[in-house]
Specification:
Structural class: alpha/beta
Order of helices and strands: EHEHEHEHEHHEHEHEHEHEHEEH
Number of strands: 12
Strand content: 5-15%
CATH superfamily of the largest domain: NAD(P)-binding Rossmann-like Domain
CATH class of the largest domain: Alpha Beta
Helix content: 25-40%
Number of helices: 12
Largest sheet: 7 strands, parallel
Strand order of the largest sheet: 8-7-6-9-10-11-12
Number of domains: 2
CATH architecture of the largest domain: 3-Layer(aba) Sandwich
Low-confidence stretches: none
Distance between the termini: 22 Å
Amino acid sequence: MKVFITGDLPGNAVDLLLKNKIEVVVFDKDRALTKEEFVKYAKDADGVISLLRDKIDSEIIDSMPNCKVIANYAVGFNNIDVAYAKKKKIVVVNTPDVLTDSTADIAMSLVLACARRIPEGEKIVRNKKFKGWGPKLLLGYELRNKNFGILGAGRIGAATALRAKAFGCNILYYSNHQNLKLEKATGAIKMPLKTLIKNSDVISIHLPLTAKTNNLLNEGILKLLKPSAILINTARGEVVDEKVLIQMLKEKKIFSAGFDVYQNEPNINPELFKLDNVVLLPHIGSATVEARTEMADLSAKNVIAVLSGKKAITPVN
């Protein structure tokens, strides 16, 4: 058996595979594979551990006749043609649960950074422009008693809501399914998207990217935001119409926005760099030693299970 890993992973994933007598090939360059490179390295692989940046379409799937499992080193799997993989009898797996807390922490970090204008303050200090305390210096917003809107009340959305509740927020949520556990823990109220957007002071996006959620926050929805609203996205950039959001930020039609993901990632719209009322992170939602190590281990264990003829631990399809 042979497994191709499309990037150098932390933890013991490679050792776990080797202990199970699986040959491992790792693409260890610090960049994304080209399509040609992917086909070259994976053509005879029985399994693949892929990164979110790898676009695994039908052409790539067809180039791997031996492949039985694709383990995506992420919770999201919009980078893989899952339906076509299923047609080819390839199991696709992901890494849920293990990065819930790390991503929820980043979401709240962005909320606080936006609400209290932390990047602007640091820039003033670093540029030696701090002239002393002033009554109107960098006025932001408290979270206490604010309406905190969660878009997508799955694992990460619910974990973010619990954190927001600890700051004294009122929890609102939009989801395809009612989350009774979240409602009991936080008093959260489920409501339609437009109602949530109109009533929220903070909106945190935790939706998967699907055909239904692509551009869900379009111009018509974004125009419903309060002028004092803060919008946070740690899910997928394509959920938001980024050009419309940027224009609203320019015109101060919302207070601030925090990004960990982008519409054309890693190619960030240069207009964002000109704005002071944004916080920009390089997609580090799960970037903790604990989460990234557990993600690697779970990916390896999924591959071992499938190649051993057992059921996948966290199958997508």
